[in-house]
Write a structure and sequence with these properties.
With 306 residues, the chain is an alpha+beta fold. The strands form six sheets. Strands 6-7-13-11-12 form a five-stranded antiparallel beta sheet. It is globular, with a radius of gyration of 20 Å. The structure holds flavin-adenine dinucleotide. Flavin-adenine dinucleotide binds next to strand 3, helix 4, strand 9, strand 13 and strand 15.
Length: 306
């Protein structure tokens, strides 16, 4: 029996057969519609299953990677070795008093809508962010003046030893589009948001306004990974890119959006190499012209194609 078959058999002892896929094409799970295959792609249905997979990964030295909604990731054309864990089956959302509790596979947009229904204010900013709750915590996602850090009370994570642990928001080092979740090797499984009671109409008005702004400014009709770069101190990435005359520039099928300079869209069957080359071209052009370093917000992971 080869090594891959052995790992598959062990995974079947931990996760239901229908939730273990081999050689899964990751582009089908990513917003950019790019990326190669995962050796194993699993979708656990309980925290215990996740804990057991982490223990297996430690014992047999098999790497694992978390994949949320794939809205802030570029995966290389050679794909990902080891196990990709996706928590789409863990997507419950409920409320307790003024808190909303969401499992990390739930979409943050759905948590935001759920809060609206419960007349709880604080998650309006997230009404158009297309990630999961887990991905939103990892990135400390934010928009229009709000961010996860403002509303997160605590999270439950499966730590690198496979133990379920409660982490207070303050322990996660949430900062501009970053956290210490990957440094600690944590898998976020659940988040509790502390919100404030408000009128339904007031919350809805804010969400409608933000949705209008987003739809009128962002190229949502094309696959993309949102804003590619972080905001450099004292500047706006989009403005620097615009002033460098880069909008409409393309490499292969990837193009700097004409609608929003901070977005790179997959216009016509781009490869990951097209995307990465265009990102580097934008960084170099802006550096040459304005002397500003554009740091990537989007994460690039996986292997190059042989
Ligand atoms: C059209 C568009 C608009 C966007 N607008 C915004 C915006 O306004 N504001 C903003 O902040 N972002 C925005 N984004 C980016 C993206 O939606 C956010 O960064 C989001 O939080 C990523 O969540 P995800 O589930 O897609 O994560 P993924 O892209 O799947 O993963 C991102 C990182 O999180 C890790 N991760 C995912 N789940 C877990 C987990 N459960 N435990 C531990 N680690 C995990 C992954 O390993 C990866 O490193 C936008 C993207 C698009 C495509």
């Amino acid at each position: 029996m080869n090594k891959k078959q052995k790992i598959y058999n062990k995974l079947l002892e931990l996760v239901k057969e229908e939730n273990v896929k081999v050689d899964e094409m990751l582009r089908d799970h990513l917003y950019t519609k790019l990326g190669g295959k995962a050796d194993f792609f699993i979708t656990p249905t309980s925290y215990e299953e996740i804990q057991n997979v982490v223990k297996l990964s430690n014992e047999d030295n098999i790497p694992f990677t978390l994949l949320g909604n794939g809205s802030n990731l570029i995966i290389k054309d050679g794909g990902i070795r080891g196990i990709v864990i996706n928590l789409k089956h863990l997507d419950a959302i409920y409320s307790e008093g003024n808190t909303v509790v969401a499992q990390s596979g739930a979409r943050i947009i759905d948590a935001s809508r759920y809060a609206l229904d419960k007349k709880l204010s604080g998650l309006e900013f997230a009404c158009g962010i297309p990630g999961t709750v887990g991905g939103a915590l990892y990135m400390n996602a934010g928009a229009y003046g709000g961010e996860i850090k403002d509303v997160l009370d605590y999270a439950y994570v499966v730590d690198k030893h496979g133990t379920l642990v409660k982490r207070l928001a303050a322990e996660l080092d949430l900062d501009y589009r970053t956290s210490n979740i990957s440094d600690n090797g944590d898998i976020v499984v659940e988040a509790t948001f502390q919100l404030k009671p408000a009128k339904y109409e007031d919350i809805k008005e804010v969400m409608d306004d933000l949705t209008f702004k987003r739809e009128s400014k962002q190229p949502l009709e094309y696959p993309s990974c949102g804003s590619v770069f972080k905001r450099p101190p004292g500047y706006f990435a989009g403005k620097l890119i615009q002033d460098s005359d880069l909008q409409g520039t393309n490499i292969g099928g990837a193009e700097v959006s004409k609608k929003h300079a901070g977005f790179i869209i997959n216009k016509d069957n781009a490869t990951t190499s097209d995307y990465i080359s265009l990102i580097e071209h934008v960084q170099k052009t802006v550096k040459d012209k304005f002397g500003v370093d554009l740091e990537r917000e989007v994460r690039i992971i996986g292997d190059d194609k042989d």
